[in-house]
């Protein structure tokens, strides 16, 4: 009876099978091998759904699985045996389990040679899993207990574009040029909610989005952003930055588009580059805004700048400070593209 049902499902979905490069025989094999604890919909034959099942171990995964969902279980070990045949995996979600670093079999990572996305958020990892598949594009490890990044752990990981380490226990000596070596294609780095007191060093030149909210950072080195030519989005909300921790032109050497410095200890608006479009300074200690001083170019020279070359600021948030209306006239003269000011 079961075989008849599977055969009928395959026949009804022949067109979708072809679009996913899975033959009739392969689909039968995939559905027959579906673990009894999981769900393998014939309409999506490359996916295996095992979430919210109270699993303590990973069942044997069928060979044609691309997308594996194991989140919200009680899994403690990432087993080589369970993934031995699942060499086609592209996306694995292991969020909200109980996996420790000691519970990650070295062979389990080696088997996933085609993996693109690995989600292991809300587990009990103390180290970055290793060795990682060189094919990996996104690695999400937020809300674990990671306190160090071993040198060489990212060697050969030039395809990795997103690294999320939010909500771990990283300190300053954990993030060095040596520990991040190999991430030549990194675009987004999230190290919010860690124990950093200084800006992380050795970031790849490719870094475009840098999220460092809710640390204890007090100072930005004067040439910090000169080493990050592509950085466009910087979030430093909920840190301990005061005026003395921001060198006068620390942001002017960059092409930042979105800069967030909310919930710090600033009393003045820092200088920022012509390129900046969004500036968040809410909940600081700023008492006034001098449009002439913060304008990236002298007000008298503004007419020498075409619209595509002049200040690009469109959004400015200043609420939660000690500033009172009205908005200074010089501010509007300089930033004529401003669409929203929150005071």
UniProtKB/TrEMBL annotation:
Keywords: Disulfide bond, Extracellular matrix, Glycoprotein, Leucine-rich repeat, Repeat, Secreted, Signal. SUPFAM superfamilies: L domain-like. PROSITE patterns: LRR. It is found in: Secreted, Extracellular space, Extracellular matrix. Its main location: secreted. Residues 1-19 form the signal peptide. The keyword Signal applies. Residues 33-67 form the LRRNT domain. The keyword Membrane does not apply. GO terms for cellular component: extracellular space. SMART domains: LRR_TYP (SM00369), LRRNT (SM00013). InterPro entries: Leu-rich_rpt (IPR001611), Leu-rich_rpt_typical-subtyp (IPR003591), LRR_dom_sf (IPR032675), LRRNT (IPR000372), SLRP (IPR050333). Belongs to the small leucine-rich proteoglycan (SLRP) family. SLRP class II subfamily. This is Keratocan. It comes from Conger conger (Conger eel).
